[in-house]
Amino acid sequence: MKKGGNGNPNPIQGDEHNAPGLYQILINSKTGDPKAFQKLVEHYSSYLYILAYRLLDNPEDAGDAVQETFIKVWKHISKFDLNRKFSTWLYRIVTNICFDYLRSRKRKPYEPYPEDIPMDYDPQDTQIIRDRADLVKKLAGELTPKQKIVFVLRDLQDLDIKEVASITGMSLGTVKSNLYYARRNLRERLEQMDRWGGN
Amino acid sequence: MKCNSYKQMLHLNRPGELSEREQKRLARHLASCGPCRELQKELQASRNTLTTLKNIEPPVPGTLNAEILAAVRRADSRRESFPAPRFRTALAGITLLLIGLFLVQQIVILQKVALLEESMARRPGPLTTKNPILPMALANMTQKMKEEPITISRDRLKALIKAYKKTQKENKMLIRLLRKTYPGFQNLDFQDGLDSGEIEYLLKNRERVLDFIKKI
User: Quick check: pTM over 0.80?
Assistant: First the structure.
């Protein structure tokens, strides 16, 4: 199972059919049970935060987006259809909120991740990899909002392409098209950077 | 087909991104096209960078959950039960109390209606001095009313009721019940009914009339 934030199993990949434990939590949350809702928050918050951070490149915006997401979830969970996949619904809400942030001019500037990220490489390699990853993240900020969302969901969150279509509400063709342009633009920009030796 | 047409396919060659047919077409093309094979290698290198990037996750703040729950509580003005179980208990208590008071009030009303119906059953018929309800009380007030059949016009009854309504809330309730329960009160139509002096007398003695209504 894929690992996610804080080293826990990724709940997004694990709730394919709203697993039994989750199912009961969802039922209780639908009736307005605050404790059940708190469990949902604890279960999903890290993953939503990581997604929001990757989309918005800023810890404050990411935190705000995740808070907005759970406020919406709390308000509308009573109407949630248990036959649907909960994580897709959750991802859809946070993605829509981030999409609005991405279109907004009030966005805060790009912030690289803090230096204390643990990485299993040699210190020298770690710095090279960190610089490279940082460059890609920075260049990803130049993509259009749609391209960036598709790129992050597919290539960084590692979601199935059909699920990306479901979350974004785009057709499969539109997802593929945005993914193609995102990857091509990133590659071309990286090549440019490498050619000119600067960021 | 020219190489440009395959570039998109080369960018979309992660599992699930190309159909089986597209994969076969691409494989056939790559077998015969050197530049596209070169591009494929470059894209593979880019993909490795992405894999590294995927494994680097931003640190999650330790206070994230607490901040989320606090934000939900703040925003939850509509469903106040979320943040405060104590408040929810108090709210439930108040609701039960109000329901209890309402039920007691309804029982009292039903008892009064039952008494009223019992009284009406004992004295059925039109509202006249021969078989009176209100005029019977009036008959006790004036000799004239004892001798001549009287009924009350709708307007005059309204005037009476208006006067009663000015007294107490309970009286209003009784009058309303009286009107609803006894059809004769709704169908009064007597042109030669009480004169202005009698009405005035009634209004002056409203307490006595009121006592009468309470008795029935």
Answer: no
